[in-house]
UniProtKB/TrEMBL annotation, chains A, B, C, D:
Keyword flag Chloroplast: no
Name under which the protein is recorded: 3-deoxy-7-phosphoheptulonate synthase
Gene Ontology MF: a single term: transferase activity
InterPro entries in the cross-refs: Aldolase_TIM, Class-I_DAHP_synthase, DAHP1/KDSA, DAHP_snth_FXD, DAHP_syn_2
Domain DAHP synthase ferredoxin-like: 1-67
This protein's record includes keyword Oxidoreductase: no
Length: 338, 338, 338, 338
């Protein structure tokens, strides 16, 4: 931690800061500049609440030197993680496709979709049983019944299955059925849910919050990891900006940023990122090329009849075409898609 | 709902749309322009899922005409609401001050703060028993013990008390103690929590999400209202933008916007909005002048020793000064501060 | 300047950095922490290009300690400036009203408006002769003819006049006519224009760019000041965010932030900030209460006939009412409105 | 254009709107819904200033149906454009590499860079002779002398050359030397400069403004096109968001969005988008895969000695490696890189 003093800070103020630091069992290194004095703090900073030092007279600002996340930090775990989920592996060397409907609407549409995405080459079936919806009057999901359909689809196709949990209650139910639990963008800082997902030990797909910084996202992952669960995959799904031509703004640079800061795998959700079917194929290719470890894509037997997210869902044919288009890119970068 | 066709949409495509609309028991009004054809849809739009019409051939885009929130919508409830909470009233004609520490750290600091803010003229004691923190390694709150201290503070001072609930579990506990429950920015779209708060019937302070639009915020309020709980007060606390000179960017215009769209009262949190103690007084005056119905402000016996949010907390003296400064503005706009 | 080394930086790398710093005639102070080493750089940092040090092996990041603007920086000029423009003063102790049409449409509408805003109590007539418009097919302004009408309005009413310059050419023309030149949001980083405005010596109203940080804004002011022109007034006019309920998002906290960082006066433009007539009065009161030094407001004899910005323009009656509403707030904060 | 009436709008108000529309030589189509009435306006909307209709009693809001840009609009020019610049072609079927230093610092570094990027396979040499810099105290460029060095580099290597013009003055000079003029992000809405670039007829690389919407960007291109210059290439270079892990946030989805809305080619600037050397290679691959028509990349003989943008500049070796990595991706998508 570094403390930057105001240009007019008195000698006395500097000494007082030094005293406080030393009283907390830390060391203070002073650099007196021509304009300002800087105080470097050495030692275990958790002994000191940096924020409040800002309030001491003569202090201009505080600069943090180290990140607050540890377990998911590449600095302390330099080797990239490969996470095993069901029959699949997610991480470097692999390119994992997850596909399925936004919401599980009924038994038949789910099974039909499962067979279609399996045939096209997906490894995971996605499907929402609990739906977080902006309006209370929109379709809210089939809940446990939906999870049972998912389980049936797994048995029928061999696909791994992933569902979102939106509360402690739905998490408790979901872990009985799924291979991987998704924590959605709106719950990225639902800390109770993160801790429970950590305790449950189930593999977690952690979506980035709508306006979360990468640091906040990694701290959210740290909540899960700190409860003893290292099976975390991150998912970039677009952030909120002023641009409205797409539903969100895909922050594709988040992939190399995560690579440099964390050992966790990261995949991309082109469906929510763009909200427009026509943009999903080019964005999927870009995701593979930038180094993402996989994709989660919305597919529906009849997008025009979908109860939610129709405009961003692919038909079976379109998903099939997408898979064909992605294969040569996966080969080029030596990624296993099976 | 309005459907805008593409410039090159065929006559056939337009007729197909018309058919779909009529098959759903609605009426279609066509306007054929020189460049594009527009289809107005008349009737109960919940019969139709507007999103998917975007997928029909020839359709360019869909424009919603009416908001999805009803109970909190001023169009259907033109009179502004005044919400009664404990001994206080929140809404037009009143200016309600809520003050207290970010986190309840122990018994004595809370009681000391309660007496100080009561003496200065506050009507509510705020204090966090459950703290949502970015890092899992930061102080997480005293939980139920904290709520008991709050209750004791109410009995000792006559202040009304407000605490945040961060999960179904903490909500269940909090309602036994508090006059008003706060749902924080990070949980604004925790729909399970909103519904439970609706069912509980307790007055709710609903903070705006960090990157929520005003429409999403009102839809979140609708979740509470739709469960039969009309006792909702909104709280603007700054949104996330690119500017880093303040912790968040206070969207002060949200106050007149809410006034024009909803009958619910709205207050401002200058502490989280700015994150800087020196800005709280000018922003508080502006909040009163713009027509907000109150403020929620962080006050601490010793900000430099606070376990969280020290830099944005006022000392007792500063809060006292703030109250003195605000009184003439309240009088000018004929607002009752008691 | 502070250099933060990577956790795994070698002793050698640290010594190399030290050498580079000393080779540039500066001093290096080392703080070796348990995790990282920090290097404080003392001396005239312009001798060193901080950015590139980031590229040296073992360096994690660079932290700037001092701002790059000097002349407009409060640290070096602690007394707030009061700027004289024509017969008016702008700065602490004053509250300056500027009003008039977005665009000067013709002679009569301008003169009519001038008399109306003068009577209501404004000190400045604003009016656009050169209009920056998003589409090339929108009305682009009367140019020099408009400036002549402005001059006539000044002579007829005694109002001071302000017009925007959008290029070196229009600046050259405008300075012959106006009391104050406005540099608009879109040109806040048109550095050639800033330098010319600096050389011209004319008082400048410098609007904040649509997505400019406060630091960039003060650096833009520094461009003007560095050419020898200290007569600069800042104008906050809303920034671009994801929220669309208002045209822009007024960053009202920018007023106290500017107060703490610069000695320059700052006014607010509620018309562009909100884009909605109904919000202008509450936002104007908030602007006065937060401590802004004045307002620039759009007024039009017939907003529904305006060639631009009609929806955000006040009628004469509305402006009159606004002035009446603002006076008690100005008195309360002891600000001179004449 | 569509006019949406308020739920409580009177029959009279609707008739008045109808009258105004017809008085302007247009047709009005009414759709009376259960909640609101909608008025479709048919005819040449330039006869009516939509904005002001918002002010008429009973009107809730106005919805635009058609874009204001025409010449650069794909709806009216469905075939994608391929732009010829010097010896190069930019557009579908090609992948054009532009590379060189941020600023031209001196004769030798420019020539050295030119030979290096030519050898690696670039088609354009980029180099800044006029530098827009946030601080007035930073290096501002060699101006015309720099352009002469660029010309010499072209003669020596056969590369096409591109330089930024930051003012009418620099544009006038630059067109004498360069194959293509760049209009930078800060000048995207410097409308005088756009018009002059349109008149000059020189091929223009138009960078997206830091917070410009795609619609504003296409309208800026329309300014150039409307002066008779169709030789426009767009360049996405990242937008400003709340995320600070990268210098800007690359909006990679802008590429497919532009493809669907305009016939103009679009390239990507990964150097400014990320600001970090390590992210340039993955982002370049993603740019190619998403369908961008080329890249503009910063390369410097000694990034650690660069006068600007050192941290985001590639060394010659890194650029060489980048080109090698991109070639198989270009082949895969059948793009010509020569």
């Amino acid at each position: 931690m570094i403390i930057i003093m105001k240009p007019n800070a008195s000698e006395e103020a500097v000494l007082k800061i030094k005293q406080i630091i030393e009283d907390n069992g830390l060391q203070a290194h002073l650099s007196k500049g021509t304009q300002v004095t800087i105080v470097g703090v050495v030692g275990d900073k958790s002994k000191l609440l940096s924020a409040n030092i800002e309030l001491i007279e003569g202090v201009d600002k505080i600069v943090s030197v180290t990140e607050s996340y540890k377990l998911v930090n590449k600095k302390f775990h330099p080797d990239d993680s490969v996470i095993s989920v069901g029959t699949a592996k997610i991480g470097p060397g692999h390119f994992t496709m997850m596909a399925g409907p936004c919401a599980i609407e009924n038994h038949d549409m789910l099974l039909e979709t499962a067979f279609a995405v399996k045939k096209a080459g997906a490894q995971f079936l996605r499907g929402g049983a609990y739906k977080p919806r902006t309006s209370p009057y929109a379709f809210q999901g089939l809940e446990e019944e939906g999870l049972k359909f998912m389980q049936e689809a797994r048995e029928a196709t061999g696909l791994n299955i992933i569902c979102e949990a939106t509360s402690l209650r739905s998490l408790e139910t979901a872990v009985k059925y799924v291979d991987m639990v998704q924590i959605g963008a709106r719950n990225m800082q639902n800390f109770e849910l993160l801790k429970e997902a950590g305790k449950a030990g189930v593999p977690v797909l952690l979506k980035r919050g709508l306006c979360a910084t990468i640091d906040e996202w990694l701290n959210a992952a740290e909540y899960i990891a700190s409860e003893g669960n290292p099976n975390i995959v991150l998912c970039e799904r677009g952030i909120r900006t002023y641009e409205t031509a797409t539903r969100n703004t895909l922050d594709i640079s988040a992939v190399p940023v995560i690579r440099s800061k964390s050992h966790l795998p990261v995949i991309i959700d082109p469906s929510h990122a763009t909200g427009v079917r026509a943009y999903i194929e080019p964005i999927s290719k870009a995701s593979l090329a930038v180094g993402a470890d996989g994709l989660i894509v919305e597919v529906h037997p009849c997008p025009a009849c979908a109860l939610s997210d129709g405009p961003q869902s692919l038909t079976f044919e379109q998903f099939d075409h997408l898979m064909d288009e992605l294969r040569p890119y996966a080969e080029l970068s030596r990624r296993n898609t099976k």
